[in-house]
Amino acid sequence: MSTQLFNEGATQERAENARLSNIIGAIAVGDLVKSTLGPKGMDKILQSASGRGDDVVVTNDGATILKSIPLDNAAAKVLVNISKVQDDEVGDGTTSVCVLAAEILRQAEQLLDQRIHPQTIIDGFRLATRSARDALEAAAVSHADDAAQWREDLLSIARTTLSSKVLAADKHMFAEMCVDAVLRLQGSTNLDRIQIIKKAGGKVSDSFLSDGFILAKKVGVNQPRAITGARVLVANTPMDTDKVKVFGAKIKVSDPAQLAEIERAEREKMRTKVAKIAALGINVFVNRQLIYNWPEQLFADAGIMAIEHADFDGVERLALVTGGEIASTFDAPELIKLGACDTVEEIIVGEDRMVKFSGVGGGRACTIVLRGGTTQMLDEAERSIHDALAVLSQTVSEPRIVYGGGCAEMLMSRAVDDSAKTVPGKRAIAMEAFARALRQMPTILADNAGLDSADLVARLRAAHYEGKSTAGLDLFQGDVIDVAGKVTESFKLKRQVLLSAAEAAEMILRVDDIIRCAPRQRRN
Question: Does the active-site annotation cover 31?
Answer without folding.
Answer: no
